[in-house]
Amino acid sequence: MPAAIIAQSAAAQSAAAQSEASADLDQIDREVAAFTGAAIGTSGGARAPVDRRMRLARCAAALQLSPYGIRQDSVSVQCPGSWRIFVPLSRGTEPSGGADLVGRGDRVSIVLQGRGFSVTQSGEAMEAGGEGDWIRIKPPGASEPIRAKVVSPGRVTIPAG
């Protein structure tokens, strides 16, 4: 077999092995969209798709997603024990998108959403926020506030990862 064909075959096998060992970046984009409840490029969603030049190891465990940053303007995507990336979120022209939909001290409905389920509980807003803002909420009986995303007047959501 000529050397060029052997080298080409080895390169093709190497590329196939590398793609099998690499994380599915499209899957990361889908999980971020499900976590934020917004499509890429829309307010509250990822600013852009994950950079396709990245080569992340395939994750054997479920990815862990959580809000990140002081203003909760990124999503932390972590493969436990392996890697962690931060996906910046699109906020439109201003973080709150306009007027506050939830005021400090307001009673709110807290919706925990996951794949195929939704649980609703009441709580108290610890700060004001507009659509797409991540604010602190205190559920009844909780010792510490949690962070939730404002989706409509008096309604916040916590995407389940």
Automatic annotation (TrEMBL):
Superkingdom: Bacteria
Gene Ontology BP term (one): bacterial-type flagellum assembly
InterPro entries, per the entry: Flagellar_FlgA, SAF_FlgA
Occurrences of domain Flagella basal body P-ring formation protein FlgA SAF (ranges): 100-158
Record protein name field: Flagella basal body P-ring formation protein FlgA SAF domain-containing protein
Lineage: Bacteria, Pseudomonadati, Pseudomonadota, Alphaproteobacteria, Sphingomonadales
